[in-house]
């Protein structure tokens, strides 16, 4: 890649890597990962080093082989081992902490429900028995279409217990998206609910599920329906539809022997966010995935049993799978599960929940942090957040501005932040600092984790010089990696793998730079590079500079047909966007990147189009700037802004 005007400088104009924040001693002293030697140990031992992760689990049949790499890129981790994921997340904690809370759930209407590990064990077993009774057998795929209610993790674990892979579909997706995913997964079973609350209104989820059923080619042989709304919504059930509560009651007290699965057997199917195109159906195997997730939950998120931990991501996305369910439960901690939105009933809802539950580790996304910033620091500042000892972020690049705000107003100025880079496909965190060991650099993700051979390379696969942009690739397999795609082996190979002279390389699709200390900065998608006036800019760099302007909360930059830079910008609630703000934005870009990067157009908009998982969908903004037809927008969370943005673009 050949960029100009970037030169490894950070968007705030300083040279990359200027600011180094050491892990606070109070944190390091009791961190899970506290020995800097860990990097070397992994480097020396190769794949064998991942025994550390696998040995965090209970194996039904111990593995001997760590990695079978006979048939790349179809790698097999711990192939001769057998285990059950649900037994690892529930049963094995019973001796030591049966009465400890596993899940503290907060519903949209102020409801609360708590589950100890023993409670979880009882309900998972009852549902597992019930699903079996309905005909679910080992290897049958069960689709789960539920909002953030405890029945969702319980259903995932019930499936895992009987060796039935789950296929969770984010509850906010449409009937059509559900139908596609049911078909792609060859799924004959569905667990859904009558509906859920959106603000004050009862919303009918079951009718979406019914529509999906009509559209899907597959015939569903049984549907289980959770009663989330009680009398608020009357949902009649057909003959092959069963009330969740009745299924669980009928099998209450039964135990189901956890099915020993090969480590390479499918644990679940999960679709990517669809930020860059059609979502891909990613398949994760049981052993390597769970090992990598458990290891990173402990070593990166530093979660222990006595923590109260909150991963704010929806379980309908990979972050919610890995760090909302499998990670925290496999390490035996207490998690907060929150059904509502962060601004209801008020904009301090998140801080209220953190204070009330004494949350010690909080993991969220830059898009959420940008909303918090937009709403104002007075909301977190009004709460006692002193229980927080570690913060995490995932999903997009976090600007150094947002990083500082997060640390200051949520982390009490002291908590370390782990900026974690990973993908649906990587299964678990792959690049991040180890919070008790590795210094942080705000705005940079950090070095690859021990055991992750991530490299930033040029077109020929050669490592780039520090500061030079290139492609982020991974040169050796890792345990959490996808085992394949629903779309087939050919697509899997084509989408992700390159065979080079020194072996196979995994392509992440992200552009990045690396500095002299090995810290990686994510520049955005390789596809998000824009060509302007013979220069190549990456979106993250430009956007990061724009949000440095006072009052700006979010920005997305695209190129139009004539090679011009178009910047879409949102501002804080109390800011009236005017000419002087346009000036200020132009100045910031000129200062941080160069005069050549001044945008040709700045479009102020109340919001940016975001995927359901909260990422800015640049390709849609590009279509608007170019006056093109829109591509696939089924992944969009706020389609209503599209019209507003279009008219704002045409106005000028
Ligand atoms: P699709 O693959 O369908 O286009 P997606 O890539 O958004 O969707 P996910 O797997 O949810 O689907 O997201 C992974 C991507 O998110 C990464 O490739 C990267 O672009 C971005 N990302 C994740 N974490 C970070 C991070 N800490 N910093 C910068 N970018 C990140
Ligand atoms: Mg992707």
Shape: globular
Enumerate the spans where pLDDT stays under 50 for 5 or more consecutive residues: 1-17
CATH class annotation of the domain at 120-259: Alpha Beta
Indicate the radius of gyration in whole angstroms.
Answer: 24 Å
Q: How are the strands of the biggest sheet laid out side by side?
A: 12-11-8-6-7-14-15-23
What binds here, in terms of ligands, is: adenosine-5'-triphosphate, magnesium ion
Question: Roughly what percent helix?
Answer: 25-40%
Measured by DSSP, the beta-strand proportion falls in 15-25%
Terminal-residue CA separation? 34 Å
Number of strands: 31
Give the class from helix and strand content and strand pairing: alpha/beta
CATH topology of the domain at 120-259: Rossmann fold
CATH architecture of the domain at 120-259: 3-Layer(aba) Sandwich
Tally of contiguous helical segments: 21
Q: Please state the average pLDDT score.
A: 93
Largest sheet: 8 strands, mixed
Tell me the layout of helices and strands:
Blueprint: H1 25-28, H2 38-45, H3 51-54, E1 67-68, E2 76-77, E3 82-83, H4 85-89, H5 94-97, E4 101-106, E5 112-116, H6 117-133, E6 142-144, H7 151-161, E7 166-168, H8 175-184, E8 189-193, E9 195-198, E10 201-204, H9 205-215, E11 222-226, E12 241-243, H10 244-250, E13 261-262, E14 266-271, E15 281-285, H11 286-299, E16 308-311, H12 318-330, E17 334-338, H13 349-357, E18 361-364, H14 366-375, H15 378-381, E19 390-394, H16 400-409, E20 417-420, E21 454-457, E22 470-474, E23 484-485, H17 489-496, E24 497-500, E25 503-514, E26 520-525, E27 529-532, E28 535-538, H18 539-546, E29 552-559, E30 565-571, H19 579-592, E31 601-604, H20 618-626, H21 640-651
Parallel strand pairs: 4-17, 6-7, 6-8, 7-14, 8-11, 11-12, 16-17, 16-18, 18-19, 19-20, 30-31
Antiparallel strand pairs: 1-2, 3-13, 4-5, 9-10, 14-15, 15-23, 21-22, 22-25, 24-25, 25-26, 27-28, 29-30
Helix pairs in contact: 6-7, 6-10, 8-9, 11-12
Magnesium ion binds next to loops.
């Amino acid at each position: 890649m050949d960029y100009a005007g970037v030169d490894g400088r950070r968007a705030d104009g300083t040279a990359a890597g200027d600011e180094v924040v050491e892990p606070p001693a109070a944190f390091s002293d009791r961190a899970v990962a506290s020995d800097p030697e860990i990097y070397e140990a992994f480097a020396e031992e190769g794949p064998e080093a991942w025994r550390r992760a696998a040995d965090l689990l209970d194996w039904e049949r111990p593995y001997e082989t760590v990695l079978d790499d006979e048939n790349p890129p179809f790698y097999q981790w711990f192939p001769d081992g057998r285990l059950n994921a649900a037994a690892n997340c529930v049963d094995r904690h019973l001796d030591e902490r049966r009465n400890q809370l596993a899940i503290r759930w907060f519903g949209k209407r102020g409801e609360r429900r708590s589950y100890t590990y023993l409670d979880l064990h009882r309900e998972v077993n009852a549902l597992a028995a019930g699903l079996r009774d309905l005909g679910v057998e080992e290897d049958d795929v069960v689709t789960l279409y539920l909002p953030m209610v405890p029945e969702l993790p319980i259903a995932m674990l019930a499936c895992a217990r009987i060796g039935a892979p789950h296929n969770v579909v984010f509850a906010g997706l449409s009937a059509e998206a559900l139908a596609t995913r049911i078909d792609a997964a060859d799924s004959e079973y569905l667990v859904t609910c009558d509906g859920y609350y959106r603000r004050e209104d009862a919303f009918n989820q079951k009718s979406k599920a019914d529509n999906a059923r009509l559209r899907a080619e597959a015939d569903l042989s049984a549907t289980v329906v959770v009663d989330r709304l009680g009398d608020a919504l009357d949902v009649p059930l057909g003959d092959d539809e069963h009330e969740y509560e009745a299924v669980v009651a009928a099998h209450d007290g039964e135990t189901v022997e956890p099915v020993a699965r090969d480590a390479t057997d499918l644990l679940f199917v999960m679709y990517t966010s669809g930020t860059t195109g059609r979502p891909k159906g990613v398949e994760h195997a049981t052993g390597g995935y769970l090992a990598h997730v458990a290891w990173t939950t402990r070593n990166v998120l530093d979660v222990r049993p006595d923590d109260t931990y909150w991963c704010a991501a929806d379980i309908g996305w990979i972050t919610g799978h890995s760090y909302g369910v499998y990670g925290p439960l496999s390490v035996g901690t207490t998690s907060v599960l929150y059904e509502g939105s962060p601004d209801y009933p008020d904009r301090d809802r998140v801080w209220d929940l953190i204070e009330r539950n004494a949350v010690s580790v909080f993991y969220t996304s830059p898009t959420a942090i940008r909303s918090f910033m937009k709403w104002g620091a007075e909301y977190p500042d009004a709460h006692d957040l002193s229980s927080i000892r570690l913060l995490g972020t995932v999903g997009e690049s976090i600007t150094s501005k947002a990083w500082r705000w997060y640390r200051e107003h949520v982390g009490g100025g002291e908590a370390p932040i782990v900026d974690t880079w990973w993908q649906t496909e990587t299964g678990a965190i792959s690049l991040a600092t180890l919070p008790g060991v590795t210094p942080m650099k705000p705005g940079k993700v950090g070095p690859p984790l021990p055991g992750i051979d991530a490299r930033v390379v040029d077109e020929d696969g050669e490592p780039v010089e520090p500061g030079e942009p290139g492609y982020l690739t991974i040169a050796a397999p890792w345990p959490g990696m996808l085992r394949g795609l629903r779309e087939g082996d050919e697509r899997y190979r084509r989408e992700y793998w390159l065979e080079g002279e020194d072996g196979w390389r995994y392509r992440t699709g992200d552009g990045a730079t690396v500095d002299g200390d090995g810290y990686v900065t994510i520049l955005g998608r390789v596809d998000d590079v824009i060509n302007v006036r013979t220069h190549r800019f990456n979106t993250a760099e430009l956007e990061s500079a724009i949000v440095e302007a006072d009052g700006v909360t979010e920005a997305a930059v695209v190129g139009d047909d004539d090679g011009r830079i178009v910047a879409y910008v949102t501002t804080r609630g109390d800011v009236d966007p005017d000419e002087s703000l346009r000036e200020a934005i132009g100045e910031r870009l000129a200062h941080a990147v160069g005069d050549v990067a001044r945008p040709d157009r700045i479009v102020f908009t109340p919001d940016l189009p975001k995927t359901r998982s909260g990422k800015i969908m640049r390709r849609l903004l590009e279509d608007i700037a170019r006056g093109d037809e829109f591509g696939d927008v089924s992944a969009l969370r706020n389609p209503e802004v599209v019209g507003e943005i279009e008219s704002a673009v045409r106005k000028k």
